[in-house]
Write a structure and sequence with these properties.
- By secondary structure, the chain is α+β, with helices and mostly antiparallel strands.
- The chain has an eight-stranded mixed β-barrel, surrounded by five helices. Strands 2-1-5-4-3 form a five-stranded antiparallel beta sheet, with helices on both faces.
- α18 packs parallel to α19.
- The termini are far apart.
């Protein structure tokens, strides 16, 4: 507690201030006290203790929070500390712990600042007001301000008493309810609300009165203009007095039509493909989930068709993406037309579409649907002055029992689509359990391939190419072989397609290319004419952007000459006539590396690529070679290929020669080179070198 001298000094200050500020103006319900800079009471007017509802001797020297009073002194203490810290005045309403009290207490805190700018003390000016006085003359100004604010606010506003009569309404309220020539104040909802909305109005009033929190709902009603329809967000709150008694209802309605329209547009954008205006993948995911669940509940079947356009990439590459976009739009129109009311069409990504059929009668219905879709897509399409005939691959899956979920149905349709592509595209395929088994084996094999690359289980084998006139080995083809430590030799036909599909062929091909370069260096020692090592390159490798750079870097790394390497590609690589692939092949050719078409005659319906691409060698597929001695048709085809190659000045290699008679006949037809088991099976590098060496000594 302060000393008597200090206390008297501050008391004089209080007396001065009270005389100047408070004493002459204090009303019976107002009191004043002084607190030091530490927040403790120093002195107070006689009735301050009564204001705090404590005895006089309990106040001096104590902190506000230490007083035992029904008032909430925690709020007093927090505000006092705020004033001390900031040296600024502040007022608060001091709640009472006595819920039966019919008075409201206010405290005004005023800091006393000395000439030196330091805080001297804090004056606390208290006053009590009966709760009913809030609505009396002391607050008329506040009421007038509130009424003015309510009048100009853009929202619909009203207050009702417990009898349902309107006490306060703004202009927007009258405009909305079209109350003309008279005010709604004093009336009830029965007088001003249309019968169509009366039940909703009364029911929500009842809910608001029964709740401690605002209730919120939306309502469609005629707009303020009386013509259009608007969406209103309505809030209602029970009004309570200081005794927590409900005295009425406050209502607020806001026109949220534009906001809801914007939300609807955003929702539509979120679930609509911007190019085709079809529903997109997020919408598909939800629709698929709903369809599968509905099928489970109704014990019916739903079906999913996944569709990819065949060779669509070539349209983008050759005609440009704008033309590709026009094609996708036309495909979307045709899919919607063909599907009709039977299902819904979605664009998932790129050229991938989905058709969801919530119910169907039989598998034959799905066959008819798939055939109709392919037929419609295959119809002549004129886009940007280009006549196109498209085709598609379709995978089909259907729910069979209630154990199938949406994710599984999509996966099964995707597996069926993959199988349709493997079978040559331009067709459809149904999911079967065997597809799932093959997929699991494929994933297992992918993991094994990755392990094989890591542990260097792949190796390069070579099969020599023989000059049919001299009988000497003049080149070789490098082949990839895989010896697994547990499973032994794994056939290329088992792992190469998987590696191509997974992209692992790029890593495998890089290793085989390096071995081919090293072998080419070894075989070309002390040779005048190049001994070429042919390397099989898949479409995936050619499409790999860095293949040209990889080849160039490998030649430089190993010291291999470009004319010692030959790249073998299948006709399928040229199928799309892609500018990307054409550009890669042209750069490879310009480097000095020759390019051969492997398995010629088995894969392409047009021979125009022979003049459009930098081709040096044709390798006649073994399906023509084997049996040509006894099958006149095969012999005619081989003769035609030989004649064409000669006319185009292309070199020839015959594959799959197994008999002397075949070799002799090819020589008679002026085919220069051949390879096959007649001379040797694929062998290791050392074995091939030995074969070449033995020819030199012979």
């Amino acid at each position: 507690m302060k000393s008597a001298t200090s206390k008297n000094s501050i008391a004089k200050t209080l007396s001065y201030n009270a005389t100047g500020c408070f004493a002459d103006n204090l009303k019976p319900s107002e009191t004043v006290a002084v607190l030091d800079t530490g927040g403790r009471f120093i002195t107070a007017s006689p009735d301050f203790s009564e204001f705090l509802q404590i005895s006089d001797d309990e106040i001096f020297g104590l902190m506000p929070s230490e007083l035992q009073t029904p008032l909430d002194m925690q709020a007093f203490q927090e505000t006092l500390l705020w004033v001390i810290a900031r040296k600024a005045a502040k007022s608060i309403w001091l709640p009472s712990h006595d819920h039966l009290s019919n008075e409201i207490s206010f405290i005004d805190f005023v800091p006393e600042i000395g000439n030196d700018g330091n805080l001297v003390c804090i004056f606390a000016h208290g006053r009590t007001i009966p709760d009913h006085a809030l609505l009396n003359s002391d607050f008329l100004d506040a009421q007038e301000q509130l009424a003015a604010a309510v009048k100009i606010m853009p929202d619909v506003f009203w207050i009702k008493d417990l009898n349902g009569r309107y006490k306060l309404c703004n202009d927007k309220f009258h405009q909305l309810l079209q109350v003309k020539g008279e005010c709604a104040v004093g009336k009830t909802a029965f007088d001003v609300v249309d019968g169509e909305f009366l039940d909703t109005h009364l029911e929500t009033d009842r809910l608001a009165l029964a709740s401690d929190h605002p209730i919120k709902f939306e309502l469609q009603a005629p707009a303020v203009d009386g013509v259009s329809t608007a969406i209103y967000e309505v809030r209602k709150l029970a009004i309570r007095n200081a005794a927590n008694q409900v005295t009425g209802i406050l209502g607020l309605a806001r026109d949220v039509t534009e906001e809801r329209n914007l939300q609807a547009n955003l929702q539509k954008m979120a679930f609509t493909d911007s190019l085709t205006s079809l529903s997109n993948r997020p919408a598909f995911n939800m629709a698929l989930q709903d369809a599968v669940e509905s099928a489970r509940i109704s014990k019916l079947q739903c079906a999913l068709l996944l569709l990819d356009l065949d060779r669509f990439k070539s349209i983008n590459d050759n005609l440009g993406h704008p033309t590709g976009d026009l094609v996708l739009n036309e495909v979307a129109v045709r899919l919607v037309r063909t599907t009709g009311e039977a299902g819904a069409v979605f664009r998932l990504s790129g050229d991938e579409f989905a058709i969801l059929l919530p119910s169907f009668c039989s598998q034959s219905d799905l066959v008819q649907m798939a055939e109709a879709i392919r037929k419609d897509i295959n119809q002549r399409m004129l886009v940007s002055d280009n006549e196109l005939h498209l085709d598609a691959s379709i995978g089909i899956a259907m729910t069979s029992d209630d154990t199938l979920d949406a994710h599984q149905l999509y996966r099964f349709a995707d597996l069926a689509l993959y199988e349709a592509k493997l079978q040559g595209r331009s067709g459809y395929h149904f999911f079967t359990p065997s597809l799932l088994e093959r997929t699991e084996k494929r994933f297992e094999l992918e993991a094994m391939i990755a392990e094989g690359l890591k542990n260097k289980q792949f190796m390069a084998y070579f099969q020599g190419k023989t000059d049919l006139k001299s009988g000497r080995i003049v080149g070789a083809e490098v082949l990839c072989r895989w010896r697994h430590p547990a499973k032994g030799w794994i056939a290329p036909t088992d792992f190469i397609p998987i590696a191509e599909d997974s992209g692992q062929i790029v890593a495998i091909g890089g290793y085989i290319l390096e071995q081919a370069c090293l072998m080419a260096i070894e075989c070309n020692r002390e040779r005048i004419s190049p001994f070429k090592i042919a390397v099989n390159v898949s479409a995936r490798q050619i499409q790999f952007e860095d293949f040209y750079r990889q080849l160039k870097m490998m030649l430089k790394k190993t010291g291999c000459q470009p004319d010692w390497i030959e790249i073998e590609i299948t006709e399928g690589v040229l199928l799309d006539d892609s500018p990307t692939i054409r550009g890669v092949l042209e750069r490879i050719s310009q480097m000095g590396v020759s390019i051969a078409i492997d398995d010629f005659g088995t894969g392409y319906s047009s021979l125009s690529y022979l003049q459009n691409f930098p081709i040096d060698v044709l390798k006649i597929d073994q399906s023509f070679i084997q049996g040509m001695c006894t099958d006149q048709k095969k012999l005619v085809l081989v003769k035609a290929i030989v004649a064409m190659a000669k006319g185009l000045e292309l070199n020839l290699v015959a594959e799959g020669v197994e008999k002397q008679q075949t070799a002799d006949l090819l020589s008679e037809l002026h085919c220069e080179t051949a390879q096959g088991y007649f001379w040797s099976k694929p062998c290791s590098a050392n074995e091939l070198i030995q074969q070449i060496s033995s020819e030199k000594t012979a």
